[in-house]
Amino acid sequence: MDLGGILTAMVTPFDEQGRVAEDEAVGLMRHLVDHGSDGLVLAGTTGESPTLDDEEKLRLWTLAVEELGGRATVIAGSGSNDTAHSVRLTERASAVGVDAVLVVTPYYNKPNRRGLLAHFRAVAGATDLPVIVYNIPSRSVIDLPNDLLRELAEIPNVQAVKQARSDDLDPIEGMDLLAGNDEMLAEVLEMGGTGGILVASHLVGEEMRRMIDEPDRRGEIADSIEQVVRALNTVAPAPATVKAALDLLGHHMGSPRLPLVPASDDEVGSIRAALETHGLLSRV
Questions:
Q1: 197 in a known ligand binding site
Q2: Is 6 part of any known ligand binding site?
Q3: This prediction's pTM
Q4: Is 108 annotated in the active site?
Q5: Which domains, ranges and CATH numbers included, belong to the chain?
Q6: Is 57 designated active site?
């Protein structure tokens, strides 16, 4: 399958007791797909994967397949810094019928090159699904250089890289290139990338979709959403900012789980100002 388009790294809604709010999750899935998203990543970083247990992740993937199967791409965030755990999660994700898996570079352990290759080979070997490698050195400490990505691309079902490194963005033969940060989308598309796994698409997904469909206006559209993108990615950690923004728009996402905390009043004010400037609040 082709892996591309606007793929939203969906937040996970919680109720007042901190449990996954399934009805709100399904409602958000529908909303995102109706407003520019070609697919969703469930239980990724923005979905608070570090504080979701395995059964919660499995339930989110199952809900997405039941709700969106055939209508949008469903991608499971099944990676961790534990290879055996990543293999088990990938096997379970495959069994419920997701379309692809997102596997992050092992964080904290700091494996060397041979360890990284062994990790991704083991996880890819646990499924026939397409595997998206997630390179995010700002969180995982280690980087996947392009020569290592080329070696990973030789694994038959390693099909794409979510690249959250801002420099040295060479396309890799045999591997789709996906923007891993919102502000990179235009640049990645210009160099032949197939789309991105994005956060601001919770709010400006239709505009981001137009960046693919209207390449001549790509820069203009990117400029028009820049303030929203900046607010969501700099005011506070992204799950908290996105949840605050969605709450302002009438979607009830609940608080993030500790150690993340809700956006403060000042932070919500900055988010509100960005939404107002873009005209989003006037649509509510």
A1: yes
A2: no
A3: 0.97
A4: no
A5: 5-213 (3.20.20.70)
A6: no
